[in-house]
Design brief:
The chain has helices at about 45-50, 100-110, 150-155, and strands at about 15-20, 55-60, 65-70, 75-85, 90-95, 120-125, 135, 160-165, 170-185, 190-195. The protein is of the alpha+beta class and about 210 residues long. The strands form two sheets. Strands 7-6-8-9-4-5-10 form a seven-stranded antiparallel beta sheet, with helices on one face. Strands 2-1-3 form a three-stranded antiparallel beta sheet, covered by helices on one side. It is globular.
């Protein structure tokens, strides 16, 4: 099977803080300072900026040029096999270890052609609605959120199986298995589909379009 193109760029949901023209020091203090107009910038940068030493200006959110502050990228990708239950249709998807279950959800949506217009949940103990170990959509009123579940922090072993449910009404159940871990390849955009078998049914069946 031919590997599919990248589904999406990991990190689009990450709130990057940008620093521009920082001079006078090489190593930024890792501690974060609380500040009303620039929350989350390294404390040393805030101190130098307030004194007018070394920093010509502090960049706000959403700027794309200059120097970025962000946690280092994971060196591993986690490979998942996601199978649509009862249909024999599956996708194999690589997601960086520093991605979240919400990133995996987004990759599944694109890989299966779903519209991403309903709530979802991951059931880590495969007990469905009886589960006491689950992560739900950030738009759900229940917690914990899938957007806060970092994949490498979940310590999912190879062979681990979980359940993914999309659409609490129609209930599209998927069986998810951790296939393995692999080194991250430079220049490759993740998440990405590496294998695709079968065509999923239409999300809304044979509804007539008037």
């Amino acid at each position: 099977y031919v590997a599919q193109p990248a589904l999406c760029r990991l990190g689009e949901s990450v709130d990057h803080r940008v620093l521009v023209d920082v001079k006078g020091f090489e190593d930024l203090d890792d501690s974060l300072a609380t500040n009303d107009d620039q929350p989350g910038l390294p404390a040393e940068v805030l101190r130098r900026s307030k004194k007018g030493q070394g920093t010509r200006r502090r960049a706000g959110y959403g700027q794309t040029s200059g120097r970025r502050w962000a946690p280092p990228a994971s060196r591993q990708v986690v490979r998942f096999k996601v199978e649509l239950r009862h249909y024999g249709v599956y996708r194999v998807i690589d997601v960086p270890g520093d991605g979240t279950l919400h990133d995996l959800h987004g990759a599944i949506q694109q890989a299966f052609g779903w519209d991403d217009d309903h709530l979802y949940a991951f059931f880590m103990d495969r007990k469905g609605w009886r589960s006491k170990d689950r992560y739900e959509s950030p738009y759900s009123d229940r917690s914990p959120s899938a957007s806060a579940a970092v994949i490498e922090e979940l310590k999912l072993r190879t062979g681990k199986k979980i359940e993914y449910l999309f659409d609490f009404g129609d209930e599209w159940w998927h069986d998810v298995e951790v296939v393995g871990r692999f080194p991250r390849v430079a220049g490759v955009r993740y998440p990405r589909v590496v294998e695709a078998v079968g065509d999923p049914p239409p999300q809304y069946g044979d509804l007539a379009v008037e």
